[in-house]
Design a protein that fits this description.
Blueprint: H1 2-31, E1 36-42, E2 48-54, E3 57-58, E4 61-62, H2 64-71, H3 79-84, E5 89-91, E6 117-119, H4 121-125, H5 129-134, H6 139-160, H7 164-179
Parallel strand pairs: 5-6
Antiparallel strand pairs: 1-2, 3-4
């Protein structure tokens, strides 16, 4: 599947190349900075890698253009490059910043055997995670005690039953969530 994913990512990068460049130019103007965001994330086997996204924030606030990009997940398109170079997959646990997946212990650490992905059931369940956290008195604590443990459980379950059929199902749910805007619950 790895080579097939790389081929699909390559084709999608070619197809969307002009669109991605246009989005990066507009993002550069709206954020008043370089339009590409990069950050260290934890990948397969706990190996750090650099993830790419379209920049959507200026001065720690999401820009108007950034809201649109996030709504339709257009800010994630540069991650096709991450798939092409083998750091990510289309489906798998969303890669997290250092200090989360890399600190897992016991059975939960098996998540690191899976390649991180653009989408997952956990990502769909928490599609509006930012809005949810804004409703909490202590967002960091809520993330660490409720959301993150739930994501670990869901991602561990995914890694145990990973299959092409299951991945296609998750991709279908993702497209439905993005374009039909139905609330998805896992």
């Amino acid at each position: 599947m790895n080579n097939v994913e790389k081929l699909i990512a390559f084709i999608l990068l070619i197809v969307f190349f002009a669109f991605i460049v246009l989005v990066l130019i507009i993002s550069s103007a709206s954020t008043k900075s370089y339009g590409l965001f990069s950050q260290i994330r934890i990948g397969q086997f706990g190996k750090p890698f650099i993830i790419y996204k379209v920049k959507t924030m200026r001065h720690n606030r999401v820009t108007l253009f950034g809201k649109y990009l996030r709504k339709f997940k257009i800010d994630e398109l540069p991650q096709l490059f991450n798939i092409l170079i083998g750091d990510m997959s289309f489906v798998g646990p969303r890669p997290d910043v250092p200090g989360y997946y890399d600190l897992l212990r016991g059975e939960s650490r098996q998540i690191l055997n899976c390649k991180p992905g653009l989408t997952s059931l956990a990502a769909l369940k928490y599609l509006n995670e930012e809005a949810l956290l804004l409703t909490k008195d202590n967002p960091q604590e809520y993330n660490d005690t409720v959301i993150f443990p739930d994501k670990v459980k869901m991602n561990l379950d995914y890694c145990k039953k990973k299959s092409l059929r299951h991945d296609l199902y998750i991709i279908g749910l993702t497209l439905k969530a993005i374009f039909v805007k139905n609330k998805i619950t896992a």
